[in-house]
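Protocol step 4 of 6: structure prediction from sequence.
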Amino acid sequence: MMVFAAAMATGALHVVYAIAVGALVLTMALVLYRAVSGPTVYDRIVALNAFGTKTVLLIAALGFLYGRPEWLDLAITYVLINFVGTLAVMRFSKHGSLTREAGDDTSDSGGRDVNVATAAVPTGDNAR
């Protein structure tokens, strides 16, 4: 009887993983639609990052569905690549390049970019 209960639990677990995989594929399709039709570049970048995250979840769910938990190593590697890639694309979309020139020192102490030519200089009552 105990073996039958374990077999039923395993079968139910496979159904849950199969439903999870279907839901992930559906949400990946919706996120891909947002990536194609996003009104701004940043919406598209966030949608592609979400697609990468859903891909990691899909790899993990399929790994457990097929009894291959070692696929989690692939999922972890993919999440690191997704994270670094998203940072690179965001930096490129903001600065136009991935590196900064050696003489380019246009950031204030807070790390925010400042346009030196148009930086506000306090005058009159605001100069304290």
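Step 5 (inspection) to follow. The radius of gyration is 24 Å.
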